[in-house]
Amino acid sequence: MPETVPTVDPRRWKALIFIALAQLMVVLDATIVNIALPSAQKDLGITDANRQWVITAYALAFGGLLLFGGRVADLWGRKRTFITGLAGFALASALGGAAANEGVLLGARALQGFFGALLAPSALSLLAVTFTEARERAKAFGIFGAIAGGGGAVGLILGGVLTEYMNWRWTFFVNIPFAVVAATGAYLVIREPAGSRNPSRLDIPGVVLATLGLVSLVYGFTRAESDGWLAGPTLGLFAAAAVLLLAFVLVESKVKAPLLPLRVVADRNRAGVYASLGLAVIGMFGLFLFLTYYLQIVKHYTPVETGLAFLPMVAGMITGSTQIGARLMTRIRPRLLMAPGFVMAATGMLVLTQIDLDTSYPALILPGFLLMGLGMGTAFMPAMSLATHGVQPRDAGVASAMVNTSQQVGGAIGTALLNTIAASATTAYATSHAAGARSRDLLKLQSMVHGYSTAIWWAVGILLLAGAIAFTLINTGRPGAGSPAASSADGERAAEGADEVPVPVMAH
């Protein structure tokens, strides 16, 4: 039977606008609240012990439910799930912006995480099934990758502007116009390809085990930051996460319609993407966290100036993704973009380990930011495309959810791990230099900068490890060329049955 040529959606580029807008909103929300948090804490009387829950409530719901959201997208329809996620996210944002007390704010953050878990995987899987021609796919994922990589830094800028010139509540309200425009455009423009859903029943045991396992893992790292790595609650949460996730893998290997078909993660290319992206995000989140505090506390930047200081990184990410990654992806193997991209980002991070009390922004911080942005943009673009490499249409949502899960879990781990390293290094420096200190305030700042620098050194190593994993595991050829991975994907599809129609990821 001759192969059917896939129909090209004439409105696909318009659809990209609204998919990208929704992705920007989700990524912005991961950092925009950080800068507003001190103001919200003061206004609502949130204690220091509870303030972390403004971030953690979102992270737990989002990270724990992403696989569920990806499966719902495959089952219910990606367009419907996408629009539902946007509407729910807008309502949760309105609730958060209008919060009169701590409980309402934390509940709104958890709701944002829930609807974000529906929205993020449906956005990426819509992109995967909409753009099927190799060159167009490269351009589309270049734009999407730039947003995924640079949106967090844009959130710092926007959060600073809104907090300083308006009110912390606008860091929530700003999501509403994003969501309304994206949902309206999606309803009018996006057309989901026929026959790409997975009608199998929802794997309830898998949902429960995956959600509880991921929540335990993310919460474990959060508790490690406050209680210590060897504290009873921390170790208990890590043990529970290990047992639950192992049980999840066993269940998925037995059930007829698994939440996460193991074929999705068994492919070495997709596994390489999930692992390397998760590690890279650990380094990135650490950088955002430490450089934000460094610029505001040590260099005395205002929230707006702090946000603007990150602009060169955003520009570098956009350039690396759209001008380097997208242009070269159809010419060279993805690993030859991802591995050098992560190494370039590590080089930028290496420059930033040299920060001191009187560091010049143009001479040191600016070059570090530019290298970080160019490297991450170059690596993120092919990574986002490969996240759905060779998957069947019915698995596109859950494959997309996996890349979001790796980033979300990586972000939670990065914040806790690097913050703990920085705090330990800060304490050790202050203790060892207390005798000869000329000023307690000066010693406090010096200790703080030493802690940041130490944690950034760790981030350098983590980024280099991400590059090594990408180079080792990812062996697919350039789009349109034969490769071992292509053969593997073909074999995988053949094993699943001749009636399955593959996503034309590498269309000629």
Keywords for this entry:
0% strand; 508 residues; globular; 18 helices; cell membrane; transmembrane helix; mainly alpha; disordered C terminus; transmembrane
Give the tally of β-strands.
Answer: 0
Which word captures the global form? globular
Tell me the fraction of residues in β-strands, as a range: under 5%
Class by helix and strand content?
A: mainly alpha
Name the helicity range: over 70%
Gyration radius (Cα, Å) is 22 Å
Number of DSSP helices?
Answer: 18
Mean pLDDT: 82
CA-CA gap between termini: 19 Å
Poorly predicted sequence stretches spanning 5 or more consecutive residues = 1-5, 482-508
Largest sheet: none
Can you write the helix and strand succession as a string?
A: HHHHHHHHHHHHHHHHHH
Organism: Streptomyces nigrescens
Keywords: Antibiotic resistance, Cell membrane, Membrane, Transmembrane, Transmembrane helix, Transport
Domain Major facilitator superfamily (MFS) profile: 15-478
Region (Disordered): 481-508
